[in-house]
Amino acid sequence: MITYRFYRTAELYFHSMPTVVPIRNPQTVALNQIRRLAADSSKVALSKHASVRMKQRGFTMIQVLRCLVGGEPVDGPTLDSVDQLGWVCRLRHVSAGVSIEVVCKLVEQDDEYILVITTI
Fold first, then answer.
1. Which among 21, 23, 108, 109 is placed 20 to 30 Å from 44, CA to CA?
2. Nearest 5°: CA angle at 39, between 33 and 41?
């Protein structure tokens, strides 16, 4: 609680009360970036492993994109520094009556893009 004395002292030094700036959660920011980038399919790259698993499990690229855009986070996003610095997360979405999970990495190099690691 701000006391009157503090208020008057702050008013003398700052000429107004200082404003509180909310700190943005980096996980939320990373998830929002993944959703924004996934809206443009040219910003989504598949690893060889993901391509094999998609074919094996019968998933389409459209299902993967829908999962990236509208999926609920199951795990992460967590900061990962293997190979490239970026955020890794696992998203789950029901598309065409099928539950799909996508593990992806938000790669922040010269140009941001999403690397799909695998599909479950």
1. 23
2. 110
